[in-house]
Amino acid sequence: MLTSKQRAKLKGIASTTDTIFQIGKGGIQDTLIKQVDDAIRVRELVKIKVLENSSYNAKQAAEELAEKTGSEVVQVIGNKLVLYRKNIKEPVIEL
User: Fold this and answer.
1) Which residues, 6 or more positions from 42, have their beta carbon under 8 angstroms from its beta carbon?
2) Among the four residues 2, 3, 20, 74, which has the most C-beta atoms within 10 Å?
3) Does domain 4-84 have CATH number 3.40.190.10?
4) Residues with Cβ < 8 Å from 27, sequence gap 6 or more?
């Protein structure tokens, strides 16, 4: 569980991070989950955009991806979401 200070720091980092995944009409499938999981392992923090043609809204997508990747939802703003999971072996972000 993230504290408010940790969440604030992650939000600051995420504001300068590029969106690396998009969720469209295909929704959340196993391949997307695997790709997001791999990216979180390397980067710890990922930003994802939910397209208008998706059957998901950003909050639904964030909750489902967080559950399936073992990560935490940092924030959901509009159609974008940010997920975080600490890499125990090789930490990238100091909290």
Assistant:
1) 87, 92
2) 74
3) no
4) 54, 55, 56
